[in-house]
C-alpha cells in the first residue's frame, strides 16, 4: 500500500502550541508544519491535504496537488480572498467546544448590558452605592443575525436565560419557539431588536452591514432605553467609526465587540475609552488545537472511505 501523504499544516496560531500538539496528531500519516524552519525547502507537490489559517501567499504554488483544504477556524473569509485558491473542497471547522464558548461569550455580553455591569464597575471604582432596578431578561428582545451553527446555539442559550430571542438569516429558518426573519425582512427584525448580536460570516453582502443606518433602525422604546450592539462575527462587517459615533449621540446605549476592522485594534482607537463598550481581543471562541487536529483526522478518514465531507464551504455564497 502506498504511504499516506502527510498533512500540510500552516496555522498562524501560537507556534509553540501547534508544534507541541502536532507531535501526537496525524499518527498514521505525519504532518509538515510550515512554521518549522526545516520545512522551508520541503517538496510539497505530493501533499493531498492542507490545514490552513492565514497561510503563506505562495502556499498553493508550492502545493499544487491538494485534494481538500481544511480551515483552522469556523470563518473562511481570509481563505476566500487568497490569490490562487484552488477549486477543491474547503471544509470549515465546526466544533462543540468552540460553539459552547461562543455561546458563553454571547450570553455573558447580553447579561452584562442587561444588568449594566459597566455602570456598576464605574460606581465600584468611585466607591459609591447606587442600587439599579433594571429590566429582567424577558423584557428584552435579543435579535441574532446569523442562524448558523453559532447563532442557533447562542439563541437557544439566550432563551434559557429568559431573553425573548428572534433571528435573522439569509434563508428563513423554522426554529421552535423563535420568530425568524429572512434577508428581505431586515427592517422588521431590527425594529423589534433591543440587543443586536452579530454572528454572520464576512462576505461581500455582509461587509459594512452594521452601520449608522442599521443602528438607527433598532428599537428605541424597549426596556433597555437605548439599543445595544454585540459583534463576534467579523470586524469588517461593521463600520467601526459609526459605532463610536452612535454611542456618542445616544443612538446606541452600548456595545460588546470581539472583532474589529483591523486587528489588533489600534491603541488610539476611540472605542477603547468608551465606558459602555466592552472589548475582547477576538478570543470569544478560539479553535482548540487538539480538537481541530482530531476533526481533520476524522474528515480525512471519511473522505478516504468515499463518504461526503462535512461542513463544506459553498464557494458561491462565500461561507
Ligand atoms: P454558519 O455558516 O453556520 O452560519 C452563518 C449564518 O449566517 C447562516 O445562518 C447564514 O444564513 C447567515 N448569513 C450569511 N450570509 C448572510 C446574509 N448575506 N444575509 C443574512 N444571513 C446571512 O457559520 P457559524 O455560525 O459557524 O459562524 C459564523 C461566523 O462567526 C463565522 O463565519 C466567523 O466569521 C465567526 N466566528 C468568530 C469567532 C470569534 O472568535 N469571534 C469564532 C468562530 C466564528 P443561511 O442559514 O440562510 O445560510
Ligand atoms: C474563527 C475565528 O472563524 O476564530 O474560527 O474567528
The largest β sheet comes out as: 7 strands, parallel
Order of helices and strands: EHEEHEHEHHEHEEHEHEHEEH
**Mean pLDDT figure:** 97
Helix content: 25-40%
What form results from the Cα inertia axes?
Answer: elongated
Return Rg in Å: 22 Å
Q: How many strands appear in the DSSP assignment?
A: 12
Percent of residues in beta strands = 5-15%
Q: What is the first-to-last residue Cα distance?
A: 36 Å
Task: Give a list of the ligands.
Answer: NADPH dihydro-nicotinamide-adenine-dinucleotide phosphate, oxalic acid
Weakly predicted, low-confidence segments: none
Helix/strand structural class? alpha/beta
Number of helices: 10
How are the strands ordered across the major sheet? Answer: 8-7-6-9-10-11-12
Describe the protein's architecture and organization.
By secondary structure, this protein is α/β, with parallel strands linked by helices. The chain contains ten helices and twelve strands. Strands 8-7-6-9-10-11-12 form a seven-stranded parallel β-sheet. A five-stranded parallel β-sheet has the order 2-1-3-4-5, with helices on one face. Helix 2 links the parallel strand 3 and strand 4. Helix 4 crosses helix 6. The longest helix has 19 residues. The radius of gyration is 22 Å and the shape is elongated. The two termini are 36 Å apart. The mean pLDDT is 97. The site of NADPH dihydro-nicotinamide-adenine-dinucleotide phosphate has 30 residues, from helix 6.
Amino acid at each position: 500500500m502506498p504511504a499516506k501523504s502527510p498533512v500540510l499544516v500552516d496555522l498562524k496560531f501560537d507556534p509553540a502550541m501547534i508544534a507541541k500538539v502536532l507531535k501526537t496528531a496525524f499518527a498514521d500519516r505525519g504532518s509538515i508544519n510550515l512554521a518549522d524552519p526545516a520545512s522551508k525547502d520541503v517538496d510539497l507537490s505530493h501533499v493531498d491535504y492542507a490545514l490552513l489559517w492565514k497561510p503563506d501567499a505562495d502556499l498553493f504554488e508550492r502545493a499544487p496537488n491538494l485534494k481538500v483544504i481544511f480551515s483552522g477556524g469556523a470563518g473562511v473569509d481570509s481563505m476566500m480572498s487568497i490569490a490562487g485558491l484552488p477549486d477543491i473542497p474547503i471544509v470549515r471547522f465546526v466544533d462543540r467546544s468552540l460553539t459552547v464558548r461562543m455561546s458563553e461569550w454571547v450570553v455573558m455580553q447580553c447579561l452584562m448590558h442587561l444588568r449594566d455591569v459597566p455602570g456598576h464597575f464605574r460606581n465600584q471604582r468611585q466607591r459609591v452605592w447606587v442600587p439599579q432596578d433594571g429590566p429582567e431578561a424577558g423584557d428584552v428582545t435579543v435579535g441574532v443575525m446569523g442562524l448558523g451553527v453559532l447563532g442557533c446555539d447562542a439563541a437557544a442559550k439566550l432563551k434559557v436565560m429568559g431573553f425573548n430571542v428572534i433571528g435573522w438569516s439569509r434563508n428563513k429558518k423554522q426554529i421552535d419557539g423563535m420568530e425568524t426573519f429572512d434577508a428581505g425582512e431586515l427592517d422588521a427584525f431590527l425594529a423589534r431588536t433591543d440587543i443586536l448580536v452579530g454572528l454572520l460570516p464576512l462576505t461581500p453582502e455582509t461587509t459594512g452591514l452594521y452601520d449608522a443606518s442599521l443602528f438607527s433602525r433598532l428599537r428605541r422604546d424597549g426596556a433597555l432605553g437605548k439599543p445595544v450592539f454585540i459583534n463576534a462575527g467579523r470586524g469588517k462587517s461593521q463600520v467601526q467609526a459609526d459605532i463610536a459615533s452612535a454611542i456618542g449621540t445616544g443612538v446606541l446605549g452600548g456595545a460588546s465587540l470581539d472583532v474589529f476592522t483591523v486587528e489588533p485594534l489600534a491603541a488610539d482607537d476611540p472605542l477603547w475609552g468608551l465606558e459602555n463598550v466592552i472589548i475582547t481581543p477576538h478570543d470569544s471562541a478560539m479553535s482548540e488545537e487538539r480538537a481541530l487536529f482530531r476533526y481533520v483526522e476524522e474528515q480525512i478518514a471519511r473522505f478516504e472511505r468515499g463518504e461526503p465531507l462535512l461542513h463544506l464551504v459553498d464557494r458561491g455564497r462565500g461561507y
